[in-house]
Design goal:
heterodimer, A: 70% helix, B: four-stranded antiparallel β-sheet
């Protein structure tokens, strides 16, 4: 292994804790991240010659703290807090960080996902400071030019400083609200990997893995939060289908047509276990737990025919009451279409057709096409699939939809 | 990417059935396991009974033949494993390097095959599996 490869690996493992520990001291995620970067640069200069230290995390922290003291001397922003921070810098030893490292890490997660930031900024900053990804890796994952991501991160850090967002773990009612922002960010990352909104590939599994890693990490930090386990369960179970969702040419395969032997049983087991953990915390089911319960219905069915569509429809109903959304209603219509019959599904879909939001949503004509095809109304079905194909931004999905349209036209 | 870290403790090939690990070593190992879990990289882990409590099934001539352990010819055996999900082989090696292993222990780091790595004919053979099962 080259020293740089080793340093990359160490960075991936240590950077979040390093940045979190520093942020707790300097009370500024942006400065903490820069200090951590300085320590990384020092490592890149020194380790190839001196070798990797025995405890690389502690080395990075010590180096960053030395830099912190320099920064403190020069930076007016710390004028008022200087004495206090200097004291902390001296008194805190790496070894005694043990227990409250978790708190610092959680503080970092909450700060990076703070609602003062736009969702895009939260995603980029979280992947950078919590996920340990480089700007270049984030840019490639989202197919966005690197300078755009770099700027997004710089602006995010500036916003946090300007709005004086405190570096802390929120408590009480605020915790619930802020946690949902964190979960949203993680699920956004997952979904961008699971069904890419842009680009040639339908999936980018490495983003799913990044999101899962963040989710699993969060579940360890907040073991008493059912929604966190719900989100982890949802992602584990969805990720279990990654290899079954595309054919060899990269073309998507719909859930009911997937080869279930290719579903990853390890991830399914992990997902069901996480769902059980959420259930044991015995509070009313939140949106992520409900969505996880829905995907679990599919995961438990050995064949598509064994799917408990009645239960899925009920769960979607529960979800719609919790967070009314035409997309959830559309999904419920699909489930009713399977549980009761295509006409019942179509009636519900038609009732949604005038919804403002759904007018630009390609899955509405796609679902409608599917139900019409089942009712033998092939011509109308083909037209709907073509309409859906014209609306999607993903090249692979477009091909799939045009294929379905063509299949309807065959005598 | 997934990696399996295979723990190979020297001497385990001859360990008596029911051999239990040292509590001190277990405590250190639990801390290590916890660090993997907290980092979100741990997918699964298990420890295995010694080979003296196991059997080997061989297939010479296409016929299954069962041999009871311990196995005289085995120089090193697996004592347990971790399955981790990381970004690179280097990261897997770094995690393996952090294990509080003792003098007689070795960890072998092996990447898990991804379905997408298989050539088309192998993928097709694998895809035929559910039809056989159904």
């Amino acid at each position: 292994m080259t020293p740089h490869a080793v340093i990359d690996a160490v960075w991936r493992i240590e950077s979040a804790r390093l940045i979190a520990g520093l942020a707790r001291i300097v009370r500024d995620v942006g400065i903490a991240e820069e200090l951590a970067q300085d320590a990384l640069v020092a490592a890149l200069q020194q380790w190839p010659e001196s070798g990797v230290p025995r405890n690389p995390g502690a080395w990075l922290m010590a180096t960053a703290k030395h830099r912190a003291i320099d920064v403190l001397r020069r930076n007016k922003r710390f004028e008022s807090k200087r004495a206090e921070i200097a004291l902390e810098l001296e008194s805190r030893q790496e070894e005694d960080m043990g227990n409250d490292t978790g708190d610092a890490l959680l503080g970092l997660v909450f700060t990076a996902c703070h609602p003062v930031l736009s969702p895009e900024a939260r995603v980029a900053l979280t992947l950078r400071v919590v996920g340990g990804l480089t700007t270049d890796e984030i840019a490639r994952a989202f197919i966005i030019p690197e300078p755009t991501i770099a700027q997004r991160i710089v602006r995010a850090k500036r916003t946090l400083a300007e709005k004086k967002v405190p570096f802390e773990v929120p408590a009480g009612d605020e915790l619930t609200a802020r946690l949902s922002s964190v979960l949203e960010v993680i699920y956004l990352i997952f979904n961008e990997g699971y069904s890419a909104t842009a680009g040639e590939d339908w999936m980018r599994p490495s983003l799913c893995e990044d999101a899962l890693r963040l989710g699993r990490m969060l579940a360890e930090l907040t073991p008493r939060e059912p929604e966190v386990h719900g989100l982890v369960a949802l992602m584990e179970i969805q990720a279990s289908r990654v290899h079954a969702r595309v054919d060899r040419t990269g073309q998507p395969i719909l859930l009911l047509d997937q080869n279930r032997a290719l579903w990853d049983q390890l991830l399914i087991r992990r997902g069901l276990a996480a769902l059980e953990r959420a259930a044991k915390l015995a509070r009313a089911r939140g949106p992520y737990v409900l969505q996880a319960a829905i995907v679990a219905c599919h995961a438990r069915a050995r064949t598509a025919d064994e799917t408990d569509w009645g239960r899925i429809a009920t769960l979607y109903g529960e979800l719609a009451r919790l967070m009314p959304s035409p997309v959830i209603d559309l999904n419920r219509a699909v489930a009713i279409g399977m549980a009761v019959g295509p006409q019942a599904g179509l009636d519900l879909v038609d009732a949604l057709a005038s919804d403002e939001y759904l007018r630009t949503y390609h899955l509405l004509p796609s679902v409608r096409g599917d139900l019409l095809a089942k009712l033998g109304r092939a011509e109308e079905a083909a037209a709907e699939f073509e309409r859906a194909a014209a609306m999607t931004r993903n090249a692979r999905e477009r091909t799939l939809l045009l294929g379905r349209a063509a299949a309807c036209k065959k005598p | 990417m997934r990696f399996m870290m295979l723990m190979i403790p020297k001497g385990y090939e001859n360990a008596a059935p029911g051999t239990m690990p040292d509590p001190k070593a277990v405590a250190a190992m639990m801390k290590y396991n916890e660090s993997l879990q907290k980092a979100g990289v741990l997918l699964a882990l298990d420890g295995l009974h010694p080979p003296s409590a196991g059997v080997r099934v061989s297939f010479a001539g296409g016929k299954a033949k069962v041999t009871d352990g311990p196995f005289a010819e085995a120089k090193e055996v697996v004592g347990g494993y971790w399955m981790i999900q990381v970004k690179s082989k280097e990261e897997a090696i770094e995690w393996a390097s952090r294990c509080p292993g003792s003098d007689n222990e070795t960890i072998e780091v092996r990447q898990v095959h991804e379905f997408s790595e298989f050539p088309p004919d192998v993928q097709e053979a694998a895809a035929g599996f559910p039809d056989l099962k159904a």
